[in-house]
């Protein structure tokens, strides 16, 4: 994958990691624009290539009454407005074959969720749109096995593919990041570390996923030190009242300092 091939990507030649960041789910236009404006300000200041992230719908939910979205086309139109307003690319995840063609009309990158990355028809549908495809490593998969998912995309004559590690299941209610997987996956595709999902604590008895946001900088620093190509961070100005994944999201007010610290680490690593 060539970062510069993503439409409207800025600072592609800055030697920084790139950032996929935004809310877990699109809850409305005002919140999406508010988050995007702040992240664009930070990433432009630090010369970080940036892609706005937001799910247009949530399909993998713990309970039937969990928030799933505000309406598919309504949310996708908000993603388009973010792109047009701030001149940045956007990414959203898809869950069904028909989602690929629909979402491709509005966003620049299609993301395959970790639970679905072995679904060949879904991966192929995303690849055949010609959009960049982000493949999230299944929590149940080895880094080496992601090579086959990448090949499914490239066999469709689409070289715009990256992989994202979002942790591996460790027992029933926790995730760990095995940093040995980063150099392994970088051998066949640019590799992103999903910092916030790696800190989820799923399968809680309440049916609401928990998390460890206090460990965000720890995991992010380790990813940057180990030469990860990109970082994935879900952020919100009011995580406690976010409609999805609030327990593991980064409060937006902490993002600038975190990015400043990580850019300093990357500059040090680049000097070696």
From TrEMBL:
A cellular component annotation (GO) from this entry: cytoplasm
Pathway: Carbohydrate biosynthesis; 3-deoxy-D-manno-octulosonate biosynthesis; 3-deoxy-D-manno-octulosonate from D-ribulose 5-phosphate: step 2/3; Bacterial outer membrane biogenesis; lipopolysaccharide biosynthesis
Coiled coil regions, renumbered to chain: none
Entry keyword annotation includes Electron transport: no
Compartments it resides in: Cytoplasm
Enzyme category, top tier: transferase
Organism lineage string: Bacteria, Pseudomonadati, Bacteroidota, Flavobacteriia, Flavobacteriales
Principal location: cytoplasm
Domain of life of the source: Bacteria
The reaction(s) this protein catalyses: D-arabinose 5-phosphate + phosphoenolpyruvate + H2O = 3-deoxy-alpha-D-manno-2-octulosonate-8-phosphate + phosphate
Keywords annotated in UniProt: Cytoplasm, Transferase
Biological process according to GO: lipopolysaccharide biosynthetic process
InterPro entries named among the record's database cross-references: Aldolase_TIM (IPR013785), DAHP1/KDSA (IPR006218), KDO8P_synthase (IPR006269)
EC nos: 2.5.1.55
Molecular function GO terms recorded: 3-deoxy-8-phosphooctulonate synthase activity
Domain spans labelled DAHP synthetase I/KDSA: 8-263
Descriptive protein name: 3-deoxy-8-phosphooctulonate synthase
Entry similarity comment: Belongs to the KdsA family.
């Amino acid at each position: 994958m060539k970062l510069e091939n993503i439409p409207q990507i800025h600072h592609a030649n800055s030697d920084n990691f790139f950032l996929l960041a935004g809310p877990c789910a699109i809850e409305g236009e005002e919140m999406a624009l508010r988050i995007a404006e702040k992240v664009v300000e930070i990433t432009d200041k630090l010369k970080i290539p940036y892609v706005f992230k937001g799910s247009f719908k949530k399909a993998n939910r713990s309970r039937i009454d969990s928030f799933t979205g505000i309406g598919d086309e309504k949310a996708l139109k908000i993603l388009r407005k973010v792109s047009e307003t701030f001149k940045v690319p956007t990414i959203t995840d898809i869950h069904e074959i028909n989602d690929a063609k629909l979402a491709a009309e509005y966003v620049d990158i299609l993301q395959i969720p970790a639970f679905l990355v072995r679904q060949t028809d879904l991966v192929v549908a995303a690849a055949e749109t010609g959009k960049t495809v982000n493949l999230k490593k299944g929590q149940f998969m080895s880094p080496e096995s992601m090579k086959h998912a990448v090949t499914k995309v490239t066999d469709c004559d689409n070289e715009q593919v990256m992989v994202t590690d979002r942790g591996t299941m460790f027992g029933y209610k926790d995730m760990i990041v095995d940093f040995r997987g980063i150099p392994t996956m970088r051998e066949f595709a640019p590799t992103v570390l999903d910092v916030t999902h790696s800190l989820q604590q799923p399968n809680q008895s309440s049916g609401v996923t928990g998390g460890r946001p206090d460990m965000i900088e720890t995991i992010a620093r380790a990813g940057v030190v180990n030469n990860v190509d990109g970082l994935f961070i879900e952020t919100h100005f009011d995580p406690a009242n976010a409609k999805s994944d609030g327990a593991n999201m980064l409060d937006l007010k902490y993002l600038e300092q975190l990015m400043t610290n990580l850019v300093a680490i990357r500059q040090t690593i680049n000097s070696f």
